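Note to self: keep these together.
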Amino acid sequence: MNTSNPLFVAQEALCFYPISTIYDSCPRYLYYALLFVSICTRWTGWLFLTLLSTASVYAGTAAIEAFILVSSPQKFAKPSTVTIPYISDNTSLHNDFPQIVTGTTSVDISPGALELDGDAVLAIVVTGYLVFLPLQCYSRVLTQERARNLLFGLWNLLMLAGGISALIYSKQRSKTPLQYMFCYPEIPPLDQTSSDGWQSSWRNSTWNESVWNTFSDINQWGSIGDICFNPCFNSSQILRQSTSLQAWVASADDELDHPHRFIDKIIYSKRYIYSLVGISVLFNFVHLIFRWLPYKSHISSKNINVIWRERKIMYDNIKTDLIDTFSTCKAELENEKDTCTTTTTTSTGEKSSSFWKRLRPALTRRYMNVLIHVLADSLILLGILLSMIISPLAIIAFVIWIEWWIHNDGPSQEHPQQVGQWSYLVGIALLMVSAAILALKHRIASDSELENEISRTSETLAKLIRMREARTQTEIEPLASTPENEGRAIP
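Structure:
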């Protein structure tokens, strides 16, 4: 075998499906902007709901894709050994093949490709979930009605499930085997190559025989439609066409020169970011428990403005509960005949008995229940305050980190001036114009339209009154049928 003039060379390559245009940089940044403006306009009605609804639909699509990706992982065939010409480490081919394989006579082939949509989906769903926390603390629009509260909770669960799926897929994707491309040493590859679709004739036996036959026959090499032979183009993905697959030739200084090396490089920053996200998830569950459990708290609202405005009332209620319960327990104990409280004639015994009498009301079950409720309210209040501090920090840190990660995935498919990118912005602008017109419909309506609206509203109001009366009657009937209420008139 001629090592100075090898038949072909092998070099490491990164095969990937680039980020879809719907998740490209412009739509993602627009999504972040929608969430930010939603928080800033949380006191409004139509504007807040329009912006948040648009962002939630976009995030919901990403969550659905996360479910599909994690449920249909890419399957890798058993590695197949391909023998290659031996090339020494000090070869001059490094100039044209920066990731050339040297010092060995074989490589293992297992076709596969990275799905870079996983990074964009992770960015979208986790950011959507993190925004749920500050909206709980600041927005009253979402908590005024049970239906809105339910929809907001379902969106939160969707984002949580999508985020978990995206994280699981990210772990699966890190197991993608290293890919290789095979080229003539006289014809260096392009920096980036797109697949034209895989033909079955390019591999009619083992990978080893297919590679050697391709470079031994110039006609067969010309039929592959590319400068280099890329086995990874034989892989597939459930949500992509084979022609969207690309092979990247990374330079020695590029972040993408080795996918596993890049993952190892960011492992420490990933730990810090995910720890921050985990703390936010914990506080989120605290808020959900506070909202849905049948617990009567002294904290009247999770909205920080309401808490600050009613802080004196809440403090007085807590103080009154503690003092009144202690006085009641003390009075009940003084009225009881307890032979165990008989004191001795010694001064030490008198002091011990006096101290025990003062302490006993605080050890009763009733007072301990009140004390536990006060402690729970204190923890809830602490959780709300910490959420105000941690949630914005977690959102900012995660967005910066994940966008830096996505930036290292490679260039965008489309530029901002292309219609696939700015069309989302135009669509949202038209939606906001429509929502603004509908919000002002009563001001621009004619007299006849107002009459019709009043009539429809009156009919709806009468229907709601009948529903409330029927519900009230349904709740009263079981009370009237109880033994203690038989023969007693229900007011």
